[in-house]
């Protein structure tokens, strides 16, 4: 490994350290910021509403309100249910009151062994409202009690009847064995109370997202308001800061997302004038974020075409979200699977076209999640074994040639001869058939895989509340030791899987550094000493970074590094340095007897650079002689 390679590795390490420090600083800083934001939001909230909503009159004229009798009605609940979800509607406003996921439970209920369905949406934290601009002012549906006219276990029709035959109808239909709820708004005979310019209705949707998992940090990191633009781009708002945006294009769907579950509003026709806000909430509370969405949807005042929506209340499961395209009301794919973040482009391709298929294959076998991760790790180690072995042999060849490299270093002790020394060393490697860059190949191969798993495991809902060994839930941290008062940088616990990961990282770093040190001499050996200290400190850095990460991720990194260390140990034990040197001597003799053999690769480039430098020095000397 030459100086440039070492410099590159140092830069990679510094980038990783800098990114993690920045991420931790952001998490620490927003806590104080949130305290200030909360007060500001309360005083400034009216200013953030869309102009159409903010300019609306505060009250209607009851003397002309054709639906005023419906204001005095008594509200009641209507329950729709299938195997997946239970939806409770309230006849006041005809809105959603509560949504429960029948097959899931919160971590608190899971830990206490309570058989309670996870409440994803409830009227205490969430609300929705539809508003119409009428000749009398703004009509808010939540001011009226709708009359149920047709109710079954999976459907409900709610009607608002006016004094002059005006009708507004809300239809709900819960799809069988699904997480989708169809919702339509239709009308009749409204033209006399609506302005001729009415082409849309306004919608307000708010949700104070509750915590459902064990730790705030990890769940908050993967919770974000996400929306899909009509142009096909999926955008997400900040995970760590309060943010407000007005969508630059019409919007197909809006998702109030937390780590493993989402409430999604899908419109048949794109939503317009969409204003979105994600407010970060303090860590010591029971909620993560406060989401709000204000928008306009197309509305046929003549009553010929209903305004159609779909709600999705369910898990962020990649394959499940993909299957929602089969029930599309828009005629196009929803691409809801974009809610499951799989990483940057190259990393996403690895997860999309490899990890997901392998994971699905092992999961369908009914194996424990810990065994699934173990099998994935073994498969990956088998795949990278051949390049790993080639890399090890490249380092081994450099190791057995080290005495010859030391002779060259002694031949050129002066710094001004560094180019000649490097050229001669590269020429030596070329004559013996050694590639000095081969030792970095496994790192280049494994880095995308490591990053891919870093993105995949925390988003795999299959890990949620799945125990393995001492960890009761692989989707969150395991607590070997815990305490009540958090310690800065450490939190309130110590993860055993994190400790094992850091220990194997230290072991693997030691083995790697020793192998590289044995193949280097001169300045490279001195540079490697600095690199060695950095690599030895990395496990300590990783401990503070990964202690609050999921047990599944730490477990994967632990067994991956353990297999890497075992592979290196096996290769070292099965490599005979004496026989390897004899093979290299044979290569040297063969190349020496070949008159057409010329330096290639880095050696050739160094030779060309040396000749160029000598030519420049020659011209400079000639110029000095003439002067």
Which features characterize this protein?
single chain, 627 residues, alpha+beta, Beta-galactosidase, Chain A, domain 5, 14-stranded antiparallel sheet, 24% strand
Shape type: elongated
Q: How many β strands by DSSP? A: 20
The appropriate CATH architecture of the largest domain is Distorted Sandwich
Instruction: Report the radius of gyration as a whole number of Å.
Output: 33 Å
What is the helix tally?
A: 16
- Relative strand content: 15-25%
CATH class of the largest domain: Mainly Beta
Instruction: Give the end-to-end Cα distance, rounded to a whole number of Å.
Output: 44 Å
Unreliable spans: 1-9, 22-63
Number of separate structural domains: 2
Helix content: 40-55%
Report the mean per-residue pLDDT as an integer.
Answer: 83
The CATH topology annotation of the largest domain reads as Beta-galactosidase, Chain A, domain 5
Structural class: alpha+beta
* Largest sheet properties: 14 strands, antiparallel
Account of the 3D structure:
With 627 residues, the chain is of the alpha+beta class. It has two domains: 259 residues, no CATH class; 293 residues, Distorted Sandwich (Beta-galactosidase, Chain A, domain 5). The protein contains 16 helices and 20 strands. The strands form three sheets. Strands 5, 6, 7, 8, 9, 10, 11, 12, 13, 14, 15, 16, 17 and 18 form a 14-stranded antiparallel β-sheet that branches. Strands 1-2-3-4 form a four-stranded antiparallel β-sheet, with no helix packed on it. A hairpin with a 4-residue loop joins strand 2 and strand 3. Helix 6 packs across helix 11 and helix 12 packs antiparallel against helix 13. The two termini are 44 Å apart.
